[in-house]
Amino acid sequence: MRHCTPEDLGLAALGEPLPADEAAHLAGCARCGDEVAALRRGVEALAVPELAAPGPPVAPPPGLWAGIAAATGVGVAPRAHVVAASAPPAGVPDSPPLPVGAGPVPPPADPPLAPVVPLRPRRSRVLLAAAAALVAGLAIGAGAVALRGGDDAGGSGVPVAAATLDPLAESDASGRAEVVERADGTLVLEVDLAAGAPAEGYYEAWLLTESVSGLIPLGVVRTGSEQFELPAGLDLGEYPVVDVSIEQLDGDPTHSGVSVARGQLA
Amino acid sequence: MTDLLGPRTSQRPRTVGWVTTEATPAAPDASGPDDAEVGRRFAAGDEQALAWAYERWAAQVHGMAVRAFGPGPDAEDVTQQTFVSAWTGRSGFRPEQGPLPAWLVGVARHKIADTWARRDRQRRAAEAAAAEAQRLPAVGPAPVDSAVADRVLLLGELDRLGQPQRGIIELAFFADLTHTQIAERTGLPLGTVKSHIRRTLERLRDRLEVDGAALHA
Description:
The structure holds two protein chains of two kinds.
Chain A (H helix, E strand, L loop, with lengths): L5 H8 L6 H9 L1 H17 L17 H9 L7 H6 L35 H28 L9 E10 L6 E8 L5 E8 L7 E7 L6 E7 L2 E6 L11 E7 L11 E6 L2
Antiparallel strand pairs in A: 1-2, 1-8, 2-3, 3-6, 4-5, 4-7, 7-8
Chain B lengths: L1 H9 L24 H10 L2 H23 L3 H16 L11 H34 L12 H14 L5 H10 L4 H8 L3 H27 L1
């Protein structure tokens, strides 16, 4: 069996989607998967929003320089009005601060200290938008399976999992996904999408890991019903989340980060 | 949270010539020499250059600190320590390797990671004291938050990278660029970018496996 190249394993650790062949191999290969996991630890430690390139500037309070002057013994000083003019007024940051314990010694019950979003920002935006939907999808998806009662038992395969696709953020997209096993053992994912045509671009279906750290692109979805044959050896336990995104015709094969509907297979 | 991430992805560093994630030129109305000259004088120990650097980039540094800790003493300490460390450690700044603001941002990352580590130590001390006070059965010391320790370790490892490796991995980690975008930005061939990314990630992995194991033991 041909393994992924070390370069592709590095890109996968960064969260970049691989070509379909490589992604399919990676999904089924423990050795390559372990390697990605080992490389990803460094990514998760450092590629966090708090360490990202500077965002909105915040003018430091006027007294801050005094401490620097005292510690360095530097005799000159910055011009206060220039510092003040370098950013919007302090205390009104453009972005909300991340939730962290307030006091210098937070009580033990505080949430974890470093608020970590252990994914690349593009991914974490997807993750955040989806967190609630995932929970809802779990419950509803399970209910949907229970209620089905073989209504299309005469169809082309045996249903093995299903998910309700719930709208994300302000989207009005919703739908249903079902995985059926054909007589020859192949798995097919059928996506039923109810959504208006996107203002720009097109819908694309993906399978995601629960942590949204891995993605398998499935293909273009239109409103209505689409079927995708899943790569042989794909572990749906590892990629249990069906995601529909809006992609632009920009030649960039990676996930745009704009998901409109999502659900967890159960 | 979306707002938090939004501005950064739309921000595009404007400095070219170095492989760097962050370097915002001085405001057009700023007086004094250009940024490169401020960098050279800073490296040479000219005190006025520290004041100029503060005028031009303290708000960027403080913005990062506030993003990590919210407005208040922790953020102010980070900003203060960043400039103090940058000045006392200015022999480590090489103007020919990159612009001064990018270097300041790198120092700020260390200070943010150090602050997390300090808070983690305080948390463990507080938990130990609370357990003691409540006479809870001994459960051993509270575990070190491994992500916090990993960050301190790996930021140190990034400092050891030469260019262009360091700039490439910073664009991937901190500017959220894909390898294709990094190649476009830097003008380096795609294969070169991919192989630098791989080697750097392997280096970070090795560092965690060797030193991280000892640290967490």
